[in-house]
Amino acid sequence: MRILFLLSSFILVQAGVIKEECDGVKINDIYHEKEVLRTDVDRPYLLAVDYSTNTLYYSFNIDFNDDVSYKSAFLNLNTKESGEVTGVTDGFAHTVDQKNHEVYIGGSDGIYKYDHKSNKAEFFGANGADIWGIYYKEILYYLDFPRQFLYTYIDGVSTRFKDLEDTKVDQFVIDNEDILFYTNATGLFGQKKGTKDAVLFKNNMSVRSLTTDINGNVYLCELDDVYKVNKETRGIDKVTEVNDCFGLAFDNENNLIYSNATSLVRLKPNLNKGC
Asked: pLDDT, tens digit, for every residue of 213-245?
């Protein structure tokens, strides 16, 4: 009986060791835990982070299953303070001028500039444009809807972006070498600014989000996978699996943040787990 008791105790101990929870993911062979930042939010989308405050901005559907009504919201990734952005009509797209710590939000009637301290947004420009996408790098770029052409906004003037003057664009970012990556019905392209030379990186892709990390590397997600753009191979490399991915961003420590249909999640490395 004593031997049986010792054996059963040994089995329980072994089972306890084996049962270490490993519900995160591996990125570059490093285990990352999933930190759930927000739940019960309908399709959080078009994520952007202000690195100076480590504040995440995103849009969501006001009414579940409503694809028309949107609102912008924020979440401080350090303090977890959260709230909705006021003063923007159908807040949808977000970008940050990281050098000057200025947040821009695209709504259904133009572009707004947001002051986080006062939680107030003031109309900025592109009057009457339904903003589909927005990105800041040295100057402000935006997409209009439903035409989905790319514009620059400089000194109060909107101008069709000449490099892609007749090209439809779904999403776009600019990387650390001034290459503009964009998606449309054909696939994922990279094109050096100032040229008309578009390079097809991947065709037949259904890209839901396109973003850059703090070093200017380009990432994207489809329905269930996150990829990193590989400029050497002119292709994309799989980073990890994400079920029902809607949006991507990186915090000020270069941790990957993603959204699915109802949640916002951050992936943080944990070197202490043997997963």
From this structure: 999 999 999 989 999 999 999 999 999 999 999
Question: CA triplet 72, 74, 76: central angle to 5 degrees?
Answer: 170
Closest CA to 93 of 104, 106, 108, 84: 106
User: Does residue 14 surpass a pLDDT of 70?
Assistant: no
**pTM of the entire predicted model:** 0.90
Cα separation, 177 vs 168, in Å, equals 23
- 94-113 pLDDT per residue, tens: 999 999 999 999 999 999 99
φ, ψ (nearest 5 deg) of residue 240: -165, 170
Cβ contact 184:172 at 8 Å: no
Which DSSP string corresponds to 61-77?
A: ESSTT-SS-EEEEEEET
* H or E element at residue 250: strand 247-250
Task: Give me the amino acid identity at 252.
Answer: N
Task: Give residues with Cβ within 8 angstroms of 28, minimum separation 6.
Answer: none
**Distance between CA atoms of residues 259 and 223, nearest Å:** 11
- Report the alpha-carbon distance of residue 101 to residue 89 in Å, rounded: 22
3-state helix vs strand vs coil in the chain, percent to 5: 5, 50, 45
Burial class (CB in 10 A: 0-12, 13-18, 19+), 1: exposed
Statement: residue 2 has pLDDT above 50? no
| CB count in 10 Å sphere of residue 12 | 9
- Residue 9 sits at φ, ψ, to 5 deg, of -65, -40
Residues with Cβ within 8 Å of residue 233, at least 6 apart in sequence: none
Whether the predicted pLDDT of 6 surpasses 70: no
Residue 220 one-letter amino acid: L
